[in-house]
Amino acid sequence: MGLLLATTNAYIEVVTSAAQALHTHADIINSSSSGQTVATQNEIISTATTTTIVSSPSSGNVSNIKQLSLYNAGSGNNTVTVEHYDGTTTVTLRSPVLLPGYSLTYEEGQGWYVETASGQILNAVANGAVNMVTSSSALVPTSTSSFVMGGMGALITPAKSGNIQATLAGYLTSSVATVDEGIILQLAYASGASGPSYQAAATGTVIGKATEYSVPTTAGAAVDVRVPVCQPALVTGLQVGTSYWFDFQMEGITAEDVSLNNAVLILTEY
């Protein structure tokens, strides 16, 4: 069942925060004792205001909203607060920040989701942003005294809370079987539309703790070395609608004989 309007005073409205063009569309089935009829409703909103986007049903009818779409056709960000009024009480259903070209959609059977201008569905963690970047290369530190960048260049634009969990995963290999040979890893981020290049000098704000991953005492030969890597970190309070890059910094422990392989960097807004 979709969103219902069960009384002649009930309706769906949206509160817009900015004077940006917002296009809304609703697909509706109206049911009464005499049968069902199909209806649609379109609205174009260009100011910061409150607008009814699904009108109240007529007497004797119940409106079942099968799909509701709100598209930011403007050039700036717009916080769209979708509210349901049942004739007595107004409640908020969703209130995301829509970037230019982004849309908020409700579909019966699927629920709510945000779609980016490029078609990426952001339905994880209350319409938060997500991204995952992988590398098939062996990523190698260049020094045992200074950090360099991994060059992952994972980008994310917070859409809801500005709180991001970053997780780096992969496995360590070594060209030698020397015990305690390894790598030090730490995550970093900064605002921007692109990240630093591979093995560039360390930059960005470091988050989480620097962690050592090293060859265990049980390693018999270099070919046997496979040390799993899982490096999580959290950052809060990032600016919604601003692009950020995330990457990791790496440094050798006693030599540069190690590499991070099959690296995956996952970003999730929560």
Describe how the helices and strands are arranged.
Layout: E1 3-5, E2 11-16, E3 22-32, E4 35-45, E5 50-54, E6 62-72, E7 78-85, E8 90-94, E9 97-98, E10 103-107, E11 111-115, E12 121-122, E13 130-134, E14 148-149, E15 154-156, E16 164-174, E17 182-191, E18 205-214, E19 227-235, E20 244-252, E21 258-269
Antiparallel strand pairs: 1-6, 2-5, 2-7, 3-4, 3-6, 6-10, 7-8, 7-9, 10-11, 11-12, 13-21, 14-20, 15-20, 16-19, 16-21, 17-18, 17-20
Label this structure with key terms.
Jelly Rolls, elongated, mainly beta, 2 domains, seven-stranded antiparallel beta sheet, 270 residues
Structural class: mainly beta
Percent in helix: under 10%
The global form is elongated
Give me the strand/helix succession: EEEEEEEEEEEEEEEEEEEEE
Please state the CA-atom Rg, rounded to the nearest Å: 25 Å
Beginning-to-end CA distance, first to last residue? 27 Å
Task: Please summarize the sheet with the most strands.
Answer: 7 strands, antiparallel
- What count of domains describes the coordinates? 2
Approximate strand percentage: over 45%
> Could you give the count of β-strands?
21
The DSSP helix count reads: 0
Low-confidence stretches: none
- CATH architecture term of the largest domain: Sandwich
